[in-house]
Recover the amino acids of this structure.
């Protein structure tokens, strides 16, 4: 599950509303007052961009509502798309003026989305949820997406602006995370050669079989065909449950093929999505953040100047992946 927190370039509500409508397949308007300016705007934009618009009143039987919504989704998308995205919009706390609390909005929205996502008759997969982040049902949509483990994007007006009973407020990213009850994952930066893949074993094999080649790592296919270090693949995937895990690797600048071959290795062993988390840098101290963690087997590329915690792979304290994995999972539970 991925959570993306973004702010629009405009402090107004219209532009971010249109972006959320355009980037979603279905727009839900959960509201008590459908005649508010915000609800009129949301409906008009959904019609303008030919998106399925689903008005929902936050009362009545949840399962009955879910049955009707799922039937409508199936009618619209079954056979057309395998997966769709939701935009959760609706009345904010300011608009409802005490009629519903944020907690009541959260409970209703989660129960409705849970019933839809897990409905036995649903013919398409719900791949992601978007929201404008506003108090009330926007905020509830974000919380529900996170609780359901669905990729979620909160797209606020500039300044992460919200409007509660006291009026408009500007927030920091940290305040948004706290409001949503979202705990940011720490970042781990993992080296490749000697940590994820066995550089030394392949190097020595090349030297034995081709003693005339001075630098085996300069040969085509060298980096692409490295064998994984014992337990490295399983450990990397396990860490992804607890941390945001990136690959931070130093290139062999005399072998330009290595840039592509390292990406090829990642794609084949860790999966295509991990390529978005690939960083290639000669000086690893350029990656900033005192809360970050670096796993590396050498100290010759700025590792000792890394701002965060340096885990020296292969050292007496961290000799292998089993020890490192146990240490980091225990650490994640107390961070």
């Amino acid at each position: 599950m991925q959570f993306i927190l973004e702010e629009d370039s405009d402090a107004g509500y219209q532009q971010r509303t249109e972006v959320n409508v355009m980037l979603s397949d279905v727009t839900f308007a959960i509201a008590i007052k459908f005649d508010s300016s915000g609800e009129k705007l949301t409906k008009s934009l959904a019609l303008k961009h030919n998106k399925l618009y689903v008005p929902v009143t936050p009362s009545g039987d949840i399962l009955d509502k879910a049955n009707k919504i799922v039937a409508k989704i199936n009618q619209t998308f079954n056979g057309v798309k395998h997966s769709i995205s939701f935009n959760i919009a609706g009345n904010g706390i300011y608009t409802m003026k005490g009629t519903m609390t944020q907690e009541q909005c959260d409970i209703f929205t989660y129960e409705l989305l849970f019933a839809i996502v897990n409905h036995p008759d649903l013919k398409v997969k719900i791949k992601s949820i978007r929201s404008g982040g506003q108090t009330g049902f926007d905020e509830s949509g974000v919380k529900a997406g996170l609780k359901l483990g669905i990729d979620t994007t909160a797209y606020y007006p500039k300044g992460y602006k919200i409007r509660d009973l006291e009026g408009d407020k500007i927030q920091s990213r940290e305040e948004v995370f706290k409001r949503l009850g979202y705990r940011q994952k720490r970042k781990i930066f993992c080296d490749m050669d000697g940590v994820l893949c066995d550089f030394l074993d392949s190097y020595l094999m090349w030297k034995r079989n081709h003693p005339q080649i001075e630098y085996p790592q300069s040969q085509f296919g060298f980096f692409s065909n490295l064998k994984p270090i014992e337990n490295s693949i399983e450990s990397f995937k396990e860490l992804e449950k607890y941390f945001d895990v990136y690959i931070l690797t130093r290139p062999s600048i005399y072998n330009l093929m290595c840039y592509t071959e390292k990406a090829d290795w990642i794609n084949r062993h860790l999966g295509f999505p991990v390529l978005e988390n690939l960083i290639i840098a000669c000086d690893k101290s350029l990656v900033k953040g005192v809360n970050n963690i670096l796993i590396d087997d050498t100290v010759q590329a700025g590792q000792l100047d890394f701002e965060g915690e340096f885990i020296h792979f292969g050292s007496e304290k961290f000799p292998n992946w089993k020890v490192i994995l146990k240490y980091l999972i225990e650490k994640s539970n107390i961070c």
In short: The chain has a mean pLDDT of 93. The two ends are 20 Å apart (CA to CA). The first strand starts at residue 3 and ends at 7.
